[in-house]
Write a structure and sequence with these properties.
Number of helices: 1
CATH topology: Jelly Rolls
Number of strands: 9
Helix content: under 10%
CATH class: Mainly Beta
Number of domains: 1
CATH architecture: Sandwich
Strand content: over 45%
Largest sheet: 7 strands, antiparallel
């Protein structure tokens, strides 16, 4: 069975966001460790084909999930069902979280990323 250490995995960046991602594709799910710097985070978006869990390891994030906005810190967990608008913005960083998505698809954490139609307005809410 494979074992991993996030600190030794090769970091990757994506055109969809400034995060540093360390990802692992599995058979039925994919996992990653994401790190955002102050003020960074993905625009509010939906995943039509994936559900997701986020577990905050360090730092703080403002998260929009549906219509709710909540500050998340170490130890906080969020479940993001399919088709629910969500996004984060780092408010105390760097902020690092562990995330798991299912299904695995091609292993890219951004594979099922679809920016929400109201992303700009929702982003303003995250920014305070």
């Amino acid at each position: 069975m494979p074992f991993y250490n996030a600190a030794t995995m090769t970091p990757e960046t994506s055109a969809k966001g400034p995060a540093v991602a360390r990802t692992i594709p599995g058979e039925l799910m994919k996992a990653g460790v994401m790190t955002y710097q102050m003020g960074e985070g993905p625009n509010p978006h939906v995943h039509p084909n994936e559900e997701q869990f986020v577990y905050v390891l360090s730092g703080k994030l403002n998260m929009i999930l549906g219509e709710e906005i909540r500050e998340m810190g170490p130890g906080d967990i969020a479940h993001i069902p399919r088709n629910v608008r969500h996004g984060v913005r780092c408010t105390e960083g760097p902020a690092t979280f562990f995330t798991v998505k299912s299904p695995a698809g091609d292993g890219d954490l951004y594979q099922d990323y679809n920016e929400a139609p109201d992303a700009k307005e929702a982003w303003k809410k995250l920014s305070g």
